[in-house]
Specification:
Layout: E1 2-6, H1 11-20, E2 26-30, E3 37-38, H2 44-55, E4 60-65, H3 80-108, E5 110-115, H4 128-148, E6 153-160, H5 178-190, E7 197-200
Parallel strand pairs: 1-2, 1-4, 2-3, 4-5, 5-6, 6-7
Length: about 200
C-alpha cells in the first residue's frame, strides 16, 4: 500500500501525509518544502515522476489531491496569471493526477480523495475565481464517482471550512486546526463503509 498526497508541504496536505505515513509509504508532491517530489501538480510530467517514485515503494492504492492556491478580490480585478494559478492549483492538478491513476484504480482498486472547500458549496464575495475552481473540482469528482460505479475505485470528496494554515497570510482566529481536519479525513479513508462526501466545519 502506497499513498500519493499533493500539496504536502504545509497545512492540511502535510497533516494528512504525516498521519498516513504512520501506516504506509507516502510520496508527497509540492512546489516547495519537505516533500518527496518537487514540481507543479498541474504538470503531467510531475504526475509521471510521482507515480514512478510511489511504485518503487509498493502498489499505489491511495491518492489525496490537496494542492491548492487562492487569489482573492472583487470580480473584474483578476489578471490572467491569477486565473491560471487558481485554476491550475485547484482544478487542473486534480484532473491530471486522477486521470493518471483512475484507470488502474478501477481495475485493481484504490481510493481517490479530492479536497475541495466550503467554497465548492456556496458562492462567496471576493472569491469568484476560487469558487469557480472548487465548484469545477466538485463537479469533476461527482462525474468521476458516477464513472467509478460498479468498479473497484472509490471516490471521496471533502469540503472543509476555514483552517488556520499558511494558505492565509495572517492567522485566522476561530478557524479549524488542520490536524483535526486531517484526522477526520484519514478516519473516513479507513472506514469500511463507503463514505463518499464529507463536509467538515467547526
Amino acid at each position: 500500500m502506497t499513498a500519493i498526497v499533493t500539496g504536502a508541504s504545509s497545512g492540511l496536505g502535510l497533516a494528512i501525509a504525516e498521519l498516513l505515513a504512520q501506516r504506509m509509504p507516502v510520496v508527497g508532491v509540492s512546489r516547495r518544502g519537505p516533500s518527496h517530489i518537487l514540481g507543479d501538480a498541474a504538470d503531467p510530467d510531475t504526475a509521471r515522476r510521482t507515480i514512478a517514485a510511489a511504485e518503487s515503494l509498493g502498489a499505489i492504492d491511495l491518492l489525496v489531491n490537496c494542492a491548492g492556491a487562492g487569489v482573492f478580490g472583487p470580480a473584474g480585478s483578476y489578471v490572467e496569471t491569477d486565473i491560471d494559478r487558481v485554476l491550475d492549483a485547484n482544478l487542473k492538478s486534480t484532473i491530471v493526477f486522477c486521470d493518471a491513476l483512475f484507470p488502474r484504480f478501477k481495475e485493481h482498486g484504490g481510493t481517490i480523495v479530492n479536497i475541495l472547500s466550503s467554497a465548492a458549496l456556496t458562492g462567496k464575495p471576493n472569491e469568484s475565481v476560487y469558487c469557480a475552481a472548487k465548484w469545477g473540482a466538485r463537479g469533476y469528482s461527482e462525474a468521476l464517482r458516477a464513472e467509478a460505479k460498479g468498479t473497484k475505485a472509490r471516490i471521496v470528496s471533502v469540503a472543509p471550512g476555514g483552517m488556520d494554515t499558511p494558505f492565509w497570510t495572517e492567522r485566522r482566529a476561530g478557524f479549524m486546526d488542520p490536524h483535526d481536519v486531517a484526522a477526520v479525513i484519514v478516519d473516513a479513508i479507513d472506514r469500511r463503509i463507503n463514505v463518499t462526501e464529507l463536509v467538515i466545519a467547526r
